[in-house]
Amino acid sequence: MIMGLYNYWIVVVLMMVGFYIVIAHGNLVKKIVGLTIFQTSVFIFYISMAKVDGGTAPILAEGIKQYSNPLPHVLILTAIVVGIATTALGLALTVRIKEAYGTIEEEEIQEKDNQDC
Amino acid sequence: MKDLFAVIMLSGIYGLLSASFFVAMDAVDVAFTEASVGAGISTLLMLVAITITGRTERPQRHKPVLALVVVFVTGSLLIYGTLDMPYFGSAQAPVHQHVAPRYINDSMQEVGAPNIVTSVLASYRAFDTFGEVVVIFTAGMGVLALLSVVRHPREIARDNEKIDSLNKSMHEEHLILRIVVKILIPFILLYALYVQFHGDFGPGGGFQAGVIFAAAIILYSMLFGMSTARRVINQSVIQLFAAIGVLLYGSIGVISLLSGKNFLDYNVLSPDPVAGQHLGILLIELGVGFTVASVMVIIFFNFAGRKNDQQNKENNDS
């Protein structure tokens, strides 16, 4: 059954949404929001690969035979926190760009750069 | 949507929704992190950022057809790529064949922590986690380098005036919020400590605890003003704590190296290997918690400090 692949399609659609925001919008804060959506789609991709039918959360307990795969959970757990740290760095750069150029719209920044040349 | 405030609130809701996805797919630890990070801290940071950079987006002049074409081509190629992937929930998928069975079957004897995610995070793949902690530390330092504001003694004096006026207005503005938050903060901090030290047994650990701890402090500084929060939490002390966290983590590794084992092999910390593992996990989770909490607080303080600084400048100009 090809419908068994639906988790990947959801991930691809979310990724497309994030990607579109990143390349089509000129506002830098909106680009960062797009990047976080993109990022979350990758997280969902990893976690959906870890899921096993009939499995439960990977915390050992009596009487449970089937666990979901803990390894992708570990990778994504740290990736989320690293993701927020890098997002904060991106926002800090945006704030500095606003102070230097007076705008965070990509086109206006480009115009100002061209004027300086 | 041109109003960035609405965009950011929606992205916060999206963060919470994806956390519930993660619960549905058995990843409780991840859901925990995503709920506190995606729905909490990241929304907050973006809101602080738009108060500085402006709230509305300029309308686009060019048509986004090219971007749509690129996105759809990429998307359809990726969907074509998924046709060979294992089905959702299949137990025979290649991911479940390699090291995962060993983690599930042997981690109880080797590490002794019921939460497999914690034993993989803090023991089997501790070196990897060390790298992540260093990345977080570096990002915090980056924000500090980009946004930190030098504070003159004159401003500190002005801060004291602000605190006085705030204390007077305490019973007029945001009365209910302030009282509720004052009651809640000790519980949030206590919960963060529970998450920190109970990470071996239930979902939780240094990363989540650090974020929750930082959230409590950020909540306080939002409602009682940056100047009050600065008096409680000294900026240089919190920077020291960020460094201590990484140092603690690294020195556990060096101790195990010096005792003749591999980097971050905790078996040497105690005569009984399992007790050594417990001690090692406890210590490095503590290091992670220190670094994450202080880096989050540093990031928020610098964003908010930048904003206050701009307001002061505008006041001086006018």
Q: Given the helix and strand composition of chain B, which structural class is it?
A: mainly alpha
The largest sheet of chain B, given as strand count, sense and whether it forms a barrel, is: none
Number of strands of chain B: 0
- Taken as a percent bin, the fraction of beta residues of chain B is under 5%
The total of helices of chain A stands at 4
Topology order of chain A in helix (H) and strand (E) letters: HHHH
Share of helical residues of chain A:
over 70%
- Structural class, judged by helices and strands of chain A? mainly alpha
Continuous helix count of chain B: 12
Distance between the termini of chain A: 60 Å
Strand content of chain A: under 5%
Number of strands of chain A: 0
Biggest sheet details of chain A: none
Number of domains of chain B: 2
Judging from the principal axes of the Cα atoms, what is the shape of chain B?
Answer: globular
Envelope shape of chain A: elongated
Q: Overall mean pLDDT score of chain A? A: 87
- Indicate the percent of residues in helices of chain B: over 70%
Structural overview:
- The complex is a heterodimer of chains A (about 120) and B (about 325).
- Chain A is built from 4 helices and no strands.
- Chain A is mainly α.
- Chain A has a domain at about 25-50 and about 65-115.
- In chain A, α1 (about 5-25) runs antiparallel to α2 and α2 runs antiparallel to α3 (about 70-100).
- Chain B has 2 domains: about 1-100, no CATH class; about 115-318, no CATH class.
- Chain B contains 12 helices and no strands.
- Chain B has helices at about 5-25, 30-55, 65-80, 100-110, 115-125, 125-145, 155-170, 175-195, 205-225, 225-230, 235-260, 275-315.
- In chain B, α2 (about 30-55) runs parallel beside α9 (about 205-225).
- The model of chain B has no long low-confidence stretch (mean pLDDT about 85).
- The interface between A and B is large, with 77 and 91 residues.
